[in-house]
Amino acid sequence: MGDSGNLEASIDRLLNEEKQMRLAENVAGTRKAATEILQLCFEAKDWKLLNEQILNLSKKRGQLKQAVQSMVQQAMQYIDQTPDIETRIELIKTLNNVSAGKIYVEIERARLTRKLAKIKEDQGQIAEAADLMQEVAVETFGAMAKTEKIAFILEQVRLCLDRQDYVRAQILSRKINPRVFDADTKKDKKKPKEGENIVEEAPADIPTLLELKRIYYELMIRYYSHNNEYLEICRSYKSIYDIPSVKETPEQWIPILRKICWFLVLAPHDPMQSSLLNATLEDKNLPQGNHGSQSRTQILSMSFIGFRETFF
């Protein structure tokens, strides 16, 4: 009872302080008072009160954007420390409600949505997870890191494939231009001009651009396999094969090159198939031999057989 009374008294004191700072438009003071209130609730493990205070503070008249942003960012750190899944979901939903429609916390909202979608997926609710992810259009977020945008869209694509919504998966995949994976990441980043958004650093758990490239093409292989688009499957494997880290590791490139050969043989003959066939036949990793007057497809088929005998 005493601890509860102390908590209530401390929060009341900070609420008065927050009000004074907010009315004086003191950003640092408002932010400090608001986040201290949340920290008190967290330390007391009073999750219900935490949710109430987040909503209460965010709805204060003339509440400062910086204070709301700081509250959301701080409360997000508490998510993984919740005692059970129900408490976790409730906190995420509270933060989603606070961040809804606010551009200055759109990145936080996207991350919260992804967390909630992951929970739904773990509970076997794939359709619900996919619907949640599609509510957020990260391609319009100017301040979100490029890799985080791509990772988010790829999650949208994956969930659509998991629910066998191939039409939506294709639409979402077109939001990613494959040429983005060939960008020179070593180039110095340009400093934003006045008035431009400052791009945030991607979280540590976001894959690198080349890792995202592999994920992208693996998802596209799943999509093309649905319609038996053998040439597109082959081209996707070729894009994975060309990733430097893959080419440096025989355990990785051997099975991929084998699949390139296989799907090239299955693909209908056309100029693109012919071009890829010629390029593949010139690959030094492919077993070579004297094939006389045999057709290129026959050569590739025999190379594929020899390739299997060589490496398997």
Automatic annotation (TrEMBL):
<feature type="domain" description="PSMD12/CSN4-like N-terminal">
    <location>
        <begin position="211"/>
        <end position="248"/>
    </location>
</feature>
<dbReference type="InterPro" id="IPR040134">
    <property type="entry name" value="PSMD12/CSN4"/>
</dbReference>
<dbReference type="GO" id="GO:0005737">
    <property type="term" value="C:cytoplasm"/>
</dbReference>
<dbReference type="GO" id="GO:0008541">
    <property type="term" value="C:proteasome regulatory particle, lid subcomplex"/>
</dbReference>
<dbReference type="InterPro" id="IPR054559">
    <property type="entry name" value="PSMD12-CSN4-like_N"/>
</dbReference>
<feature type="domain" description="PSMD12/CSN4-like N-terminal">
    <location>
        <begin position="10"/>
        <end position="190"/>
    </location>
</feature>
<dbReference type="Pfam" id="PF22241">
    <property type="entry name" value="PSMD12-CSN4_N"/>
</dbReference>
<protein>
    <recommendedName>
        <fullName>PSMD12/CSN4-like N-terminal domain-containing protein</fullName>
    </recommendedName>
</protein>
